[in-house]
Amino acid sequence: MKIESVDLFYLSMPEVRDIADGSQDAIVIRVQAGEYVGWGECDASPLNCIASYVCPMSWSVCKPIRASVEGQRLDGPEDIHRIGDLVRENSMDILQTDHTLSGIDIALWDALGKRLNEPVYRLLGYDRAYPKTPYASLLFGDEPQETLYHARQVRDLGYRAAKFGWGPFGHGAPEIDAEHLHAAREGLGPEGILLVDAGTVWRDRVYEAAKRCEALQEVEATWLEEPFVSNAVEAYSALAPMLLPVGLAGGEGCHDVYMARRMIDEAGLAYIQIDAGRIGGITPAKEVADYAAPRGITYVNHTFTTHLALSASLQPFAGLAEHTICEYPVEPSEMSARLTSERILPDEEGQIHLPDAPGLGVEPDPETLREFLVDAEIRVGGQVLYRSPTI
Amino acid sequence: MKIESVDLFYLSMPEVRDIADGSQDAIVIRVQAGEYVGWGECDASPLNCIASYVCPMSWSVCKPIRASVEGQRLDGPEDIHRIGDLVRENSMDILQTDHTLSGIDIALWDALGKRLNEPVYRLLGYDRAYPKTPYASLLFGDEPQETLYHARQVRDLGYRAAKFGWGPFGHGAPEIDAEHLHAAREGLGPEGILLVDAGTVWRDRVYEAAKRCEALQEVEATWLEEPFVSNAVEAYSALAPMLLPVGLAGGEGCHDVYMARRMIDEAGLAYIQIDAGRIGGITPAKEVADYAAPRGITYVNHTFTTHLALSASLQPFAGLAEHTICEYPVEPSEMSARLTSERILPDEEGQIHLPDAPGLGVEPDPETLREFLVDAEIRVGGQVLYRSPTI
């Protein structure tokens, strides 16, 4: 079948606040291929994704992404690989490319799955999707008391694992961070899996991270995530041995397979966290899973937003039985919470399962798309290059 | 002084062709700081840079770049470092950030140099700017005869060095590439410095590059540039020993210091090529020069477009006396050729010298800006976020 059209929907909460919550806006992608409709989502700035999709050509390897997608054949997985290669080649000089390609690649897998009547994970070569243990992803409170309160809350909700991140963590004295860590442990109870996300707060300053190792060990955190920015591999590898037995986690900033492989090979990670909505889609995410598993690195999805993004991010490691932990959005914005009518909910054991349905198994709700759609327009040289599509 | 305003000028030739010529459009940046005006340029897609500068905030580290620039103090070099750090932190989740920051950083150095009445290279800590040997940057001809013709032409123009790249090279049989290489050598004469640019044609396929090593050695090429994409470090390091004594060159795709340092440490490069208009500006480019020099790697600018970009790209290694070779735009589009009224021209020995003038020493010509300005507008949620500025 042929890719007939690609539409980009820019969604947003009426007010976007200056907080560590990436679920306040969204860029949802609809691909029409033959008679099938595929949906995808980038975890990225909507306007930047739109610009890279429609921008005028600057030169032969600085073309708009649409030049390599619309009109292409889509008959099997090899076409998705081919289209991805074409996009990366023709749009090499647009930095935003990998983020935008992500949502398109996801939508192509969804459309292909629907056509072939298979869940995406089967098209990726997995026989089955194993259940995953979702961890609730939360922000540290402003005060340790608030962190304690939230930790108790997620425990009461039945989560076995919780991740605390951002907020004041890493910005003040190490003693205050330690108080937050102990509060989180207290709230989760001794059995709870406690994960900590530093949100790149120390950029590449190993000595700052080193001051928090002892408290992380005391509270028996399972991992410390993103103490540094994604490319600061030397800083990661310097910290890793100091942190043990706490594992080092990172990788959500990786926007191609090369970056992720380097993190796996050189950063001393125990966990590689990949967002299918950033790395270029399900295709490169699966490559990373294939690379990580035999090297003893646990693959974990990065997902903070919608259940469409969640399904996409789970597919690449669905068949890895030992890679059990998964990020699960717990407090998304109303818009992100309502994006899909189907939801991937924990069962009575608190485990989650990918839908056994063609494609991704979840779809945006047209009502939600309509309600949160942002009216946007880009004009260049008298021509309208983009105008918000109708649903 | 305070940064009062930042304007982005999108320029373009009336027709942009699907060829390996990145000089067909441009994004020029004007910064007003106190009573001084600084100019900069990104070597990047104009619409994408504009989008990242004005986009609505998505969350706390996905802010438009302007949020971290406008209204900031600019009194010394430390302010430019501070603003760059702020941009990278606040716009971390916008991939396009480094490209856009590049032109802003350059304009800030220009404005600061004017205020302190010093050329930028002196503000970077260099006592003087050493002359550089420009190489003419050309495309391979469609046929070897055409390559020969162009090689003779640049030799007649007085260039001691020339680089041939892109075009058919690497796409067909190795024998045809060899014919082009011999034609280039014949045209330049035995004394000419011959450089070859593969334009990432083999992505990360070492075996394809290996088939061309013998011909490159026969014609005594000084370097082979970008056989692979910038992140494919393993492929670079595998090729490097096969290529000797021909050197390996690369790095123009680096969009931060981490990537460049990795290329220096692990890719087996003899030459690291940095575009100040892509890596985030003069500030990170100078960091790369500082890192490369003591490691015996020769720093080379990447510049294919204007003399504004050329001045910016030369500043970071102006004071490195041994790093003599520099890229020099020879066949830019009419728009790029006319962007600045001052030009950096070879002297009677064929050497070029940075202007001994405050800032960058070259400025856009208002007439050219007006003539090639593209009318563009971005509206989101009923608000005009961008409209082409007046000059």
Structure description:
The structure is a homodimer of 391-residue chains. The first copy, chain A, has helices spanning 46-54, 77-90, 97-116, 120-123, 144-156, 174-188, 206-210, 213-218, 233-243, 257-266, 282-292, 307-314, 334-337, 366-372; strands at residues 3-12, 25-33, 36-42, 133-139, 161-165, 193-197, 223-225, 247-250, 271-274, 298-301, 325-328, 376-380, 383-387. Chain A is an alpha/beta fold. Chain A folds into 2 domains: 3-118 and 365-387, 2-Layer Sandwich (Enolase-like, domain 1); 123-337, TIM Barrel. In chain A, strand 4, helix 5 (144-156) and strand 5 (161-165) form a beta-alpha-beta unit. Chain A starts with a strand and ends with a strand. At the A-B interface, helix 1, helix 3, helix 10 and strand 12 of A face helix 1, helix 3, helix 10 and strand 12 of B. Strand 12 (376-380) of chain A pairs antiparallel with strand 12 of chain B, so a sheet runs across the interface.
Explain briefly what this protein structure is.
2 copies of one chain form a homodimer. Chain A contains 14 helices and 13 strands.
Question: What are the SSEs and their pairings?
Answer:
The structure is a homodimer of 391-residue chains.
Chain A: E1 3-12, E2 25-33, E3 36-42, H1 46-54, H2 77-90, H3 97-116, H4 120-123, E4 133-139, H5 144-156, E5 161-165, H6 174-188, E6 193-197, H7 206-210, H8 213-218, E7 223-225, H9 233-243, E8 247-250, H10 257-266, E9 271-274, H11 282-292, E10 298-301, H12 307-314, E11 325-328, H13 334-337, H14 366-372, E12 376-380, E13 383-387
Parallel strand pairs in A: 4-5, 4-11, 5-6, 6-7, 7-8, 8-9, 9-10
Antiparallel strand pairs in A: 1-2, 2-3, 12-13
